[in-house]
Amino acid sequence: MALTSKLxxxxxxxxxxxxxxxxxxxxxDVAQVHILLVNPQEYVVSPVRSKPTKRISNxxxxxxxxxxxxxxxxxxxKLKQFLPLQKVSxxxxxxxxxxxxxxxxxxxxxxxLKTEYFTPCAxxxxxxxxxxxxxxxxxxxxxxxxxxxxxxxxxDGSIDLKHxxxxxxxxxxxxxxxxxxxxxxxxxxxxxxxxCFYKGRxxxxxxxxxxxxxxxxxxxxxxxxxxxxxxxxxxxxxxVVSSPKSYNLKVGDKxxxxxxxxxxxxxxxxxxxxxxxxxQEFETNEVWEKEDFIDLAPKTLTKDINxxxxxxxxxxxxxxxNFGFIVAEGAPTSGLTxxxxxxxxxxxxxxxxxxxxxxxxxxxxxxxxxxxTINLLNFPSGVSNQGIVGTRLGNESYIxxxxxxxxx
Length: 408
Description:
The chain is mainly beta and 408 residues long. The chain is 10% helix and 36% strand.
């Protein structure tokens, strides 16, 4: 597909460059995209979790959500204020040192919720939870139990985009320094290995001979003997470990994740994806089969990368180790499929090396601080999450976490 683009506006501040383009696609379609280029020597990107505007008990929150399930209604503004969901501009207003704010990747929303999310062992895992690895300032809040790409920010501010799962590191008990290494994912018959089971790829929903389960960063149930008929249900936003080894764990034990091949300390990390461009090569449907996102994402993500043009957001790295973001508009322009997003990114930024998808539809957001004012630069739009976390067309959506770009 031959692409031509026209620069509409440009703003350069120190080591930040913001650009806006019209991109001319096939059949006369026009897409509008925003590019933000960042020098990691001067600026750093950090993930920030959203917080509820108002507090409410888990029991009352469940009653609100369950009522919406039964009636099929959209989330009301009243309900949103009790959930850990915020607009990017709201998150920026609470972090005065940031210059730009961009939406993060997928998070749990109400279609994923079941009663189990409000049981005592998992009461903190519900709306807004990032899906997969989430580390902030060196503290893990959830782990890379899924095989997805990860945005990794090191202590020096440099970033990396690479595949990370539990197989690429080890879990360390923060209190007793116990080390747990996962050998396989979903190898049901291999009882001599330590195996991780999670929803999406697992052929079973209940594990009998399990050792423990983790939701967030801590143990939620333990079967220390690893025998018997006691079943454990695989949590929606966690995993179950079956192992021949005994670890002497207890409910509430907390863990951290240690990457095997990391020579630098990881300050922040978030799971994201799928991969659009890897080492300057476009990814294919066959490669995507190996990434866990289909069962977790809205319908605008399918195994066909040429479907569903809409608003899109991605993060990319350059061959000179700088990085950036691309945000494609949806309505009223044509929007982009994931294949088009990859092609457009490479066309506008030829030195692009790796590019990974973040999120899309009503969640696609880029904001800029102008003095005391925070301005929305794009027009969020999409069908996948309108009414779930979105607001009116063109307004910011309530999302689980944001990526903030700040001066070092």
